[in-house]
Amino acid sequence: MGFGWWKLFGAALVGILFFHGFCGAETVPNFSFMHNATTAPDISYYDYIIVGGGTAGCPLAATLSQNYSVLLLERGGAPYGNPNITNLSAFGRALSDLSPTSPSQRFISEDGVINARARVLGGGSCLNAGFYSRAATDYAREAGWDTRLVNESYQWVERLVAFQPPIQAWQSAVRAGLVQAGVVPYNGFTYDHIYGTKVGGTTFDLEGHRHTAADLLQYANPTGLTVLLHATVRKILFRTKGKSRPLAHGVVFRDASGTKHRAYLKSGPRNEIIVSSGALGSPQLLMLSGVGPAEHLRAHNITVVVDQPLVGQGMSDNPMNAIFVPSPVPVEVSLIQVVGITHFGSYIEAASGENFAGSPATRDFGMFSPKIGQLSTVPPKQRTPEALAKAVEYMNSLEAPAFRGGFILEKVMGPISTGHLELRTRNPNDNPSVTFNYFKDPQDLERCIQGIETIEKIIESKPFSKFRYDYLSLAALLNITANSPINLLPKHANASRSLDQFCKDTVMTIWHYHGGCQVGRVVDYQYKVLGVDALRVIDGSTFIYSPGTNPQATVMMLGRYMGKRILDERLASDGN
């Protein structure tokens, strides 16, 4: 064949996935309210304190600042002006940057799947695939959201960050293959979640510049908002004396130099602290602050404020599995643009490209790079610096055809399988321990199998025929994928023959993990933390299931939606 195709898969998959792993716009917004936390006073007072300037925190802060004083604390830096984030040619460098100021922080779940969490203003919207698609109307109804305000909030987000992608030959072939495979009808371009095949939105504009949740701060009232960067919140402060329930009234945070600062709520019955630190960060911060399973907190010498055993429970990560299809002809570099929304509970998406990162000297392989420990053909204890260096050297020697082709992936909706999160240390900069239990529920596995079978139909379809080699059978393509370094789980020899084993062996994250502070379990339907006062959690940690095909649209919407709800309720109360 000329190449060992399985060796090519890892490099190509990396390039395709992380072609779009950069963030920022061509011009840097002049945010007069954005400062390094080292400039913060020792003590300050605000109507609202938001912990986490991510996908939910930015729109929430922008909204609340219209009428009240807001402090937004972000542990990372700004997405603007950093060439490793902004420049397309450097897309992989941000993800392989292991420095303390990197915009992404790698973690490995107890399942053995390598993952990443954001550490930058704008959160995961700075690191994801850019796909923009709303949640199903049923999802919003089951969440108890007001449909009119949901639609208005999506539109508020879309005015700044969502665009229609240009569809070229490879994506068009996938789209036609999906329809031929029975994922019908074809619904054209839409942000809406509708059964069938569609072209979704993207957060990349026509010039290829990414727009993120940080851009939504353009809506903010600059006199009402203070954004502090490199501000790591150590814990939430509670008043208990003379209170029937603990009352959140402030936070302790450290700046980049290690100096401690305190921010307090101004006096007033409706002022609140809102945690928007993501599915890992929000349950972690609640636990560090004394809200969580009492026995676990005491084991870490944390004073228990509220024994809440459900904090950190219900952790889920939607499993993703892909088939790489080497192409005999050049293909366009494309992001996630087309999606098939099936009735059996799997979402089919695709991406393609070649020559993703220029010359071998500058080539990087994103979250599948051996530079960041992604070497799944070697057991974890054998992933020595020498083994990683050898893998880097090999990757850099790959020829250009290794980057020609694309992958078609399926993501399991939900999922039903859940795990849990626990503290490892009391340092908020350290990753907690998290277990997702991929495919623990057999229905998740069945959905993956049906998704892979649908991908096989697309590959075998007439519209896709020009983008595959005739001599590479489906079994060969499965072997290419199954033998690639994707995760840290042990491989099985029968991966190409058993689709359930293929799903288990090649499982990856699509970075849609959620849970840990779920509605009805840790927070109520107004996102108020149960058992305490003046504290909410508003982000993806509250989700039972991931919304839509890709959650970022709904997380941004939720920040705006809850900001409006809080403003409207407070203004109505103040008017009485």
Automatic annotation (TrEMBL):
Protein keywords: FAD, Flavoprotein, Signal
Keyword Signal included in the entry's annotation: yes
Annotated signal peptide: 1-25
Cofactor(s), by name: FAD
Highest taxon of source: Eukaryota
InterPro entries cross-referenced by the UniProt entry: FAD/NAD-bd_sf, GMC_Oxidoreductase-Related, GMC_OxRdtase, GMC_OxRdtase_N, GMC_OxRtase_C
Glucose-methanol-choline oxidoreductase N-terminal domain residues: 278-292
Family: Belongs to the GMC oxidoreductase family.
Protein name (record): Protein HOTHEAD-like
Organism: Prunus mume (Japanese apricot)
Organism ancestry: Eukaryota, Viridiplantae, Streptophyta, Embryophyta, Tracheophyta
Designated gene of the protein: LOC103343991
